[in-house]
Amino acid sequence: MPVLSVRLGYPTEELSLELFPAILDTGADATLVPLSLRDEIAAPLVAEAHIRSRWGERRAVAIFAVDIEIAGLRLPSVEVIGDERGREIVLGRNALNSLNCC
Fold it and tell me: What is the DSSP secondary-structure string of the chain?
């Protein structure tokens, strides 16, 4: 699977110095960020919502705003789902559609 290195940050603040691996998932509507990383950067809560997995499981999630840097390009205030179960960042179409990729 394709993986990129990204930096995360609180909107309008400095980005983390650490690079995190992020899986590119062109089939995912949203971007997922582990709650542990969200807590490190203290990203602001935007909303609470429900998501449904591809197996039909429905669960409540928190949506946060983070800045994401990919190869020096900063995507400001991307709404991401705080994932309590996952350990990796999954870049979904809401972030990928902001990029002009060839």
Answer: --EEEEEEE-TTSPBPSS-EEEEE-TT-SSEEEEHHHHHHHTPPEEEEEEEE-TTS-EEEEEEEEEEEEETTEEEEEEEEEEESS-SSEEE-HHHHTTS---
